[in-house]
Specification:
The chain is an alpha/beta fold. It is 39% helix and 21% strand. The chain is globular.
Amino acid sequence: MPNIFMVEDDDSIRELVLYALGKDFDAAGFPSPAAFWQGLKTGTPDLLLLDIMLPGQDGLSVLKTLKADKKTARIPIILLTAKGAEYDRVKGLDAGADDYITKPFSVLELISRVNAVLRRSGARTDTSLADGAEAGEPYTPLRVQNVTLDTEKHLVTVDGRETALTYKEFELLRLLMEHRGAVLTREKILSQIWDIDFEGESRTVDMHIKTLRQKLGAGGEVIHTVRGVGYKAE
C-alpha cells in the first residue's frame, strides 16, 4: 500500500484528506514542517502533499530542501496552493514539484491526481517491455535534434549532457517526442500525463512546458507552441 505524507496546518482539511486517503493508502499528516521533518526520520513516503502556506517554514522552502537532498529528491510532490497564487505555482514547478491543486479542492479530484502521480512514478521501475518493446527487439532512445530521451535508463540528455527532470516533466517530454511532428492539444496532454480531464486546468500544462523548456536549455527549442491548439516536438 503506497505511503503518503501530508503537510497541512489546517486541521479540518488535513483530517478530511487523511480520512479519504485512508481507504487505499497508508497516509500520515503533519501540522507543520517541523513535525514533517521528524516524521521523515521514520521513513520516506511514496508521495507528499505539501501546503505552501505553513507555520515556521513555507512549503516552497520545504520543497527546495527535499529536492536538494539525494535521499528525498525523487519523492513526487503535489503542492496545495491558494486560488490565484500563480506565482507560487510557477515557483513550485520550477523547484521540482510534480503537480499542484488549488484550494478549495474536491477530495475526488485530489485522489485522482494522487493516483495519476503514483502511476507515473511507479512506471519508472517497469522494464522496457512496459514501454511497448517486444522481447528480443533492440531498444532505441528517442531523439529530436540535440535532445535524447532514454526510457530504459530514465535519462534525458541535451548535447550529451544529462538534464534532471521531475516525473511529470519526463513523461511530458516523452509524450511529445513519441509523437514527433504531431500537435498535441492541452486536453490530450492532460488526459495522457495527468490522467485527468478537468475543465480550466490547461494552465497546468503551460506551466510544465515553461519549466521543461528552461531545464532543457538549448534543447528547449525542440518544443514548439501551436497558438490556440497545443504543443509539438520538432
